[in-house]
Amino acid sequence: MSKMNLGVNIDHVAVLREARQVNDPDILQALYVACESGADQITIHLREDRRHIQDVDVKNIMAFSKLPVNLECAIDKKILEIVSKIKPHRATLVPEKREEVTTEGGLDIFSYEDETRYAIELLHDSIIPVSLFVDPSIAAMERSKELGAEMVELHTGLFANLFAMLHSNLPHSNHSVKEIEFPRYELSSRLEKALEDIKYAATHANKLGLEVAAGHGLNYHNVHEMMKIEEIIELNIGQSIIARSVFTGLSEAVKEMKKLTTR
Ligand code: PXP
Q: What ranges in the chain are assigned the alpha helix state H?
């Protein structure tokens, strides 16, 4: 089986910092600790609204990271210009809506085909490999290939939500996912289908010559399901690692995730 790379998304350290608009916690300290504790890649998202990562963070992280940096960004002219200048090891194109709490779905490469192609070409002009954050469907894999991406990141949000609704207290909490408040047998069959979709999409993408990553909502309880899919060679994980670090420290949280994601 191929090696699994762990991309640690450190956006949430900046979320905490921006909540107070101070310089604490220090994003560069998070970078060092993640690098020293087993991360294979650092993932950050420069949002148009700059709600967490700031331009200066991207510059500093690029300058000081010992690991490759995967920079997530929206298809937006100004952001793409910044990314082209900064030249991260990879750019991942993601959808962005101002009112969303987090990235809610994959990039709609069918409705925004021309814009996506333009963004990929622009990034390629600056020799930046491109990944597309898309929903796990065969059609999305084929379109991603046609558009010229090197990689796809499969959106695992639906899988993660179904898993949590079935295997945790989520349905009884304030954060129950209303759209999938189904009986357990229904959740179970939908979860199976969501996993199958990820598996089929990964296999198909792999056959097309695309590299395959996955991410969103992955945590210490559900990540084993991704480990079974050998075509997936990278996982980008943020929320669960930073959440655990509140109790264990970031180093321990990254090490624990690395242990679960080692093949
Ligand atoms: N991958 C992409 C493309 C994302 O947008 C995000 C969320 O910022 C993640 C992975 C990480 O998701 P989570 O924070 O739920 O682990």
A: 11-20, 27-36, 55-64, 77-86, 113-125, 138-147, 157-167, 184-207, 223-227, 239-248, 250-260
